[in-house]
Structures are given as structure tokens and as C-alpha cells.
Write a structure and sequence with these properties.
single chain, mainly alpha
Length: about 250
């Protein structure tokens, strides 16, 4: 798994060179700018919603009154850390919902970009096909809904775990790994669909190559640490990198 994660991470550097060489910027910048603007607006809203929800829970359960009465600095420290962890997990959960909505809306473009990337690698062309576009949209929507439901189950379980003192400190890492896997899964599936693999076959194949999915999703999230530019480039770079990392594997199966 670690080896595949390294391959997926290296694929982002290859994707950058590939995009520069073949002048694919028009497929990168326009959807990327739209994504970045929506990301800024939604994360501001999500941040306020998460903070208000946590404050409501604290007041509703009487935790703040209880801690003030105890006046214990160590318990106060644990409570502060726990509150921060819950906020981080809620933010990841909100971001995952935003991410899947964008995947559903952008699935035709991402599918075409993945197809175009592989066609360039094979020296061919990618003629536009409206029936294929509808097919890609349908599959992308179905898998995005399926992945979002499973991810929600895992994140809610992790959220409950985060309420346990000390043990809950690892939960943001677990939540991030789940996020990375399911996002990378969506990126890798474009290659699976293009090679006529069914959703069940895609789930089985990517499940056996979890490192590629986790590595792809991990770099996608890390790119968000670079304000605006990283947000603009992250979605399309993830598609191209996933296609490049999958190409050798799918080619050996032909």
C-alpha cells in the first residue's frame, strides 16, 4: 500500500509536466476557478455552522457549567482539545459533502479530461460523444452518492470515537484517510469506466489498490493548504494524476 501511495503522489508531479507539455490549461483553470470560489464561500459557511453547533451542544448538555464548577485546568485542556477535534471532523464532513456535489456537477468534464489524458498518452484523439457524456454523468452520480453514503457512515462513527478522551485524538487522522480514499476512488474510477469495467469491478479493483486512492486523495487535500492557487489546481490535477497512475495497471490487463 505504501508503494502505491508513493506512485500516486509522484503522479501529481508527472501530471504537472503533462499538463504543461500538452497545453491543457483551459481544462484546468476554468473549472478550477469556479471550484475555488465555491470552496471559499462554502468553507466560511461550514466553519460558522460547525462552531455554532458545538456551542449549542456544550450549552445544551451543561458541559460548560460543569467544567466551570470543577475549575480543573487539566479537564479544561482536554475539553478544549476535544472541542477542536470535533470541529475538525465536522469540517471534514462538511467538505466531503461539498466535494461530492462538485464531483456530481463536474463529472462530465472530469471524465473527458481523464479520457483526453489517456488518448494523448496513446497518440489518439477524443471525439465528443453526447451519449457517452450522459453515460459518464450517470455513473459518476451513482458512485458519488454511493461513496458519500459509505463515507458518512464512517465519519459519523469516527465522530462518536472523538468524544472518548485521549483515544479520540487520533480521529482527525482516521477521518482524513477515509476522505482521501473515497476522493481518490472517484478519480480512479474514470479510468475504470473508460475500460468498460462495471461499478462492482471498479470497487473490487480499487479496493485492492487502496494506496493509489489514498495517495491521490492525500495530495488533493494537501494542495488546499496553498490558498486559491492550490484550490484552483487541485481538482483537475487529481484527475490527470489518477489517470497517469492507473494507466500502467490497466494497460497490463489488456
Amino acid at each position: 500500500m505504501l508503494k502505491e501511495m508513493i506512485v500516486a503522489i509522484q503522479a501529481y508531479f508527472e501530471a504537472h509536466r503533462f499538463i504543461q507539455k500538452h497545453k491543457l490549461w483551459k481544462w484546468i483553470l476554468i473549472p478550477g476557478i469556479i471550484y475555488a470560489i465555491l470552496f471559499m464561500i462554502s468553507m466560511h459557511f461550514f466553519s460558522e455552522t460547525s462552531s455554532n453547533f458545538i456551542e449549542w451542544i456544550i450549552l445544551r448538555t451543561g458541559l460548560k457549567t460543569w467544567l466551570d464548577r470543577l475549575n480543573n485546568s487539566f479537564l479544561g485542556f482536554l475539553f478544549t482539545i476535544g472541542t477542536l477535534l470535533v470541529w475538525l471532523i465536522l469540517m471534514l464532513f462538511y467538505f466531503s459533502l461539498f466535494k461530492y456535489l462538485f464531483l456530481i456537477v463536474g463529472s462530465p468534464l472530469f471524465a473527458y479530461l481523464s479520457e483526453k489524458t489517456e488518448a494523448i498518452m496513446e497518440g489518439g484523439d477524443t471525439p465528443f460523444s453526447f451519449p457517452q457524456l450522459l453515460k459518464d454523468m450517470g455513473r459518476g452520480i451513482r458512485l458519488a452518492i454511493r461513496n458519500s453514503l459509505w463515507q458518512t457512515v464512517y465519519v459519523l462513527s469516527i465522530l462518536l470515537l472523538s468524544l472518548i478522551p485521549l483515544a479520540g485524538w487520533l480521529t482527525p487522522i482516521l477521518a482524513l484517510l477515509v476522505e482521501c480514499y473515497y476522493y481518490g476512488f472517484s478519480m480512479l474510477d474514470y479510468s475504470m469506466e473508460r475500460h468498460k469495467n462495471t461499478p462492482a469491478e471498479s470497487i473490487f479493483f480499487i479496493g485492492n489498490h487502496k494506496g493509489l486512492a489514498v495517495g491521490n486523495g492525500l495530495v488533493f487535500y494537501l494542495m488546499h493548504l496553498l490558498p486559491f492557487l492550490g484550490w484552483v489546481l487541485a481538482p483537475a490535477y487529481a484527475v490527470v494524476a489518477a489517470t497517469l497512475s492507473m494507466y500502467p495497471l490497466k494497460k497490463t490487463e489488456r
